Structure formats: structure tokens, C-alpha cells
Amino acid sequence: MNYSTRPLSHRSTYHYRWVVYTLLVSAGLHVLGVLTALGVLQPGLDVQLPILDRAYYISNNVLSWRLGWLVWQCTAISNLVAAIAIVCYFRHAYLRRVCDTCWPYYWSLAALVFTILAMIPEQWAEFALVTEFIQTAHLAVTTGDATEYLLQESRWLVMTTTCGACGYTMMQFAWICCATIYHGRPRKIWWFWGFGLLDFALFTISYLACYWSCQAALQAGVYVGFETVIIFNAIAFPLLILWMLMFISVVGNRHHAEAVLKSPKLPNNY
Fold it and tell me: Which end of the chain is more exposed for a tag (fewer CB within 10 A), N or C?
């Protein structure tokens, strides 16, 4: 892939900075989300605990439960904002012919579509988890009948940890493609796409295992193999956070390479 001989404008730098800022915020919120999941959300999500114990925790810790999911809702919004920033950056790079192919821009658009598709079921489920599901938990504790609780729990787990995660996993794959093509030297950044594909595989196994486990819970009343989801997510999320920083590095490497090329100066508002 050939590098452009056109100089960077202030607008190019502006778009790049927004990519950096939004990804850093998203990475930070992912860190906070993981800590929240291990803290205030864990007693209500640990399917290894007795079902009525989970329901009792939720019904008696409503504020903590809602704040915990609020962090993940903010994380989803940060993913969307980052996806938009990345689209704007690669669109500008394509229009200025910084890259000799349109595929980085198209892959960034695909990532934005996957992000939106992931947010629809995820946000629907997370809204339900902090509203009607709390009432369901209270009813289960009061009556001792957890049938409806298990039905809703498995449904919302599938929508967040399977449907939502599938969309975000495809978002990451699209980002791998757009950044690798844009950089132009895939052999030099094998660590970037290599770790990205590893993370892609880990999340794929996780959300498929979640779906299978929830189906087993609906049939037998017990989650089977949910440990797989926990283990693979425990590896995948820290790797995802690290990979976001790698994305900034890879795109920044190409971006700053453009800055040192000598060429006629263009207007700043180009």
C-alpha cells in the first residue's frame, strides 16, 4: 500500500484526536464495568448461587444493581461514540486520498452498523434488568416461586451476553480489518490483528456458551457450563481493553507517518 504525499490538515488531526479520546474513554469504562460486574453485580449474576439468593440480593440492593448496569449502559454509548469517531476519521482519510483504498472506510461503517445492532438487544435487556426484573425478583422472594424469575433471567442473559456480545465481537473484527488495511503493512503489526483475532475467538466461544447454558436452564432449571462464559470473559475483557490501546497505536503510527512527509502545504480547513 502506498502512502499519500498529501500533508495532514488540522481537520485530520482533529478526527484522529477524537478517535483517541473516545477509545480511551471506552477502555476506561470497560475497566470500570468489569470491576462493577465483579462487585455490585456479581451476587445477582452468579448462576452458581441458589436462584432465590440471587433474587433476594437484587430485591434488597436496588440502587447498587441499577448503578452497576448504568456503567455498562454508559460503556455501550462510549462504543457507539467511538465507532462514529472512527468512521469520521477513515472517511476523511479516504476523501483526502491518504489511503489508496476505500476499504478502511467501508469496514469502519460496518463496525458502526454492528455496534448499533449490538446495542438494540443489549440496551433493551439492560433496561428490563433495572425495571421489571427487579419486580420479578421481589415476587420470587415473596412467593418462593422462581419460575418466572428464571425465565426472565435467561432471556436477558441471552440478549446481553449472546446477542449484544455477538454484535460487539463483529464490531471488533471490523475494526481489526479497517486498521490493518489502513496501516498497510500487516506483517509489521501481526501482534495487533493476532491479539484481536484471539480476542474475537474468546468472545465467540463465550457468547455461544452463554446461549447453550441458558437453553439448558430453561429446560432443566439449572445453568450448565456457565463457567465457560465466566472464564473466557475473564480473559477476553482485559485483552479487549489492551487491544483498544493497540488500535490507537496502529492508527496513530500511520497517521503520524503522514505528518512527516514533505509536500506542498494545503489550507488548514481542507
Answer: N
